């Protein structure tokens, strides 16, 4: 076991890296600021190493008080605007276009600032042109607000936070300076976990990093089943604004697909990854209106609702659910893993469309000392690097050349394993320098295990799958 090399990370990644002890001591995440914004801010306001000093904390607190609005600040901010003040704030801004038929006018886009419950602000077209992400999931940034003579709030200016583009060639060159173990630990630390903690074995790290597969692979749909407290949703909440998390409760077709009243495209059409958390308590008002289009989407990457054109999307869907374990810390229903989840998940046609199930019971429960305390990559840079890797086809070509299936694998099994293996390859070997043994151990084996968990349930549920046998075989060629 090699100990973590902070100096190497700093030397190779420079200002794209940050000491991960800065964030927990800042209190920023406690007030709802996602890590990818908070780390960017800390580096701007109080660059440095180690936990924040009392003086640095004071500086951050003063900044937060001034720049981060809370919901109950709304009236005060509106009052200041009516007095002719320009207010500068840090918030998420989204832009929408209302389509109203028959008016004969070209609709004006309008901006929304969810934290202030402002939904009809004007915004210059030049700002939208420069920041097209406003039209999708929105952009975190420093915004300047003013009031126009007609009483409408205007977003006058926007200084976006998110890392805009990542040079994959440079990212790959930097990866080459690390061993595989060092790189795995760097990624593990970057998403907020302590790679030196003895409970995190190489296998546990593999399954934690499998959470990144939906970011590097488009239309990659996966589940994670685990007991409470393994940190399932942590990475998704903090890595990028292009990832949307819906927690438990009810999910509506308008939310997911398209809103019939406003014609607004739903989460699956606007984000790169949509995560349904607490799936065990998920319910739908009208299940058929959700399950039908969802099944169609999982198979084809397209969906529609009555009266609307098909919408194509490369969004990955992730489902996270809590399950019970037995006294040996194994799932109670190991043969049929989704037994205790909502009925629609146990429908074979639905389940078969998922690439795999992450065995969250093999990830230790999260405790305070498992939090990263080393130097890792800044979350906004790391999230963007992963999402940029989606566009690179070299990894899928490599995987196709080097995996051989026998008749035990259905077409869906093959596609799922190829995509998952390509995803692990992007995460661990973005420079594509590896041996076939490395590929088998770090990419093919975990990819096959992910899909095997789906096959196990399908085999249990439906005799049709018994012709293929219980096990899927795949080998390196």
Automatic annotation (TrEMBL):
InterPro entries: BrxL-like, BrxL_N
One Pfam family matching this protein: BrxL_ATPase
Keywords: Hydrolase, Protease
Superkingdom in the source lineage: Bacteria
GO BP: proteolysis
Domain spans labelled BREX system Lon protease-like BrxL N-terminal: 11-145
GO MF assignments: peptidase activity
Protein name: BREX system Lon protease-like protein BrxL
Name of the gene encoding the protein in the UniProt record: brxL
């Amino acid at each position: 076991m090699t100990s973590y090399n902070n100096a190497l990370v700093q030397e190779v990644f420079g200002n794209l890296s940050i000491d991960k002890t800065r964030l927990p001591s800042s209190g920023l995440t406690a007030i709802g600021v996602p890590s990818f914004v908070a780390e960017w801010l800390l580096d701007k306001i109080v660059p440095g190493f180690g936990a924040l000093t009392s003086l640095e904390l004071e500086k951050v607190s003063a900044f937060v008080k001034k720049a981060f609005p809370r919901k109950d600040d709304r009236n005060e901010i509106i009052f200041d605007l009516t007095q002719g003040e320009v207010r500068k704030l840090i918030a998420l801004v989204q832009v929408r276009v209302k389509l109203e038929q028959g008016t004969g006018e070209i609709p004006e886009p309008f901006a929304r600032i969810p934290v202030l419950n402002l939904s009809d602000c004007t915004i210059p077209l030049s700002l939208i042109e420069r920041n097209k992400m406003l039209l999708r999931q929105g952009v975190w940034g420093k915004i300047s607000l003013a009031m126009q003579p007609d009483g409408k709030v205007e977003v006058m200016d926007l200084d976006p936070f998110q890392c805009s583009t990542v040079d994959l060639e440079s990212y790959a060159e930097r990866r080459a300076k690390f061993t595989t173990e060092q790189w795995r630990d760097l990624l593990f630390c970057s998403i907020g976990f302590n790679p030196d903690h003895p409970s995190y074995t190489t296998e546990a790290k593999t399954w934690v990093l499998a959470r990144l597969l939906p970011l590097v692979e488009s239309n990659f749909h996966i589940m994670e089943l685990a007991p409470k407290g393994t940190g399932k949703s942590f990475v998704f909440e903090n890595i990028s604004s292009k990832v949307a998390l819906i927690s438990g409760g009810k999910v509506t077709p308008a939310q997911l697909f398209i809103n019939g009243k406003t014609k607004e495209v739903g989460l699956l059409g606007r984000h790169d990854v949509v995560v349904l958390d607490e799936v065990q308590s998920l319910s739908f008002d009208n299940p058929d209106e959700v399950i039908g289009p969802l099944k169609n989407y999982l198979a084809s990457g397209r969906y529609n609702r009555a009266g609307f054109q098909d919408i194509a999307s490369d969004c990955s869907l992730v489902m996270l659910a809590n399950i019970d374990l037995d006294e040996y810390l194994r799932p109670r229903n190991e043969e049929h893993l989704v037994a205790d989840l909502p009925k629609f998940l146990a429908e074979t046609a639905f389940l078969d469309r998922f690439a795999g199930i992450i065995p969250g019971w093999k990830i230790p429960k999260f405790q305070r000392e498992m939090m990263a305390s080393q130097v890792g990559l800044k979350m906004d840079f790391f999230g963007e690097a992963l999402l940029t890797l989606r566009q690179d086809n070299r990894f899928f070509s490599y995987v196709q050349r080097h995996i051989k299936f026998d008749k035990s694998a259905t077409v869906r099994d093959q596609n799922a394993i190829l995509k998952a293996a390509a995803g692990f390859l992007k995460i661990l070997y973005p420079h594509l320098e590896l041996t076939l043994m490395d590929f088998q151990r770090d990419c093919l084996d975990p990819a096959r295990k992910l899909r095997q968990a789906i096959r196990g349930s399908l085999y249990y549920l439906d005799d049709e799958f018994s012709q293929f046998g219980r096990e899927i075989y795949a080998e390196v060629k």
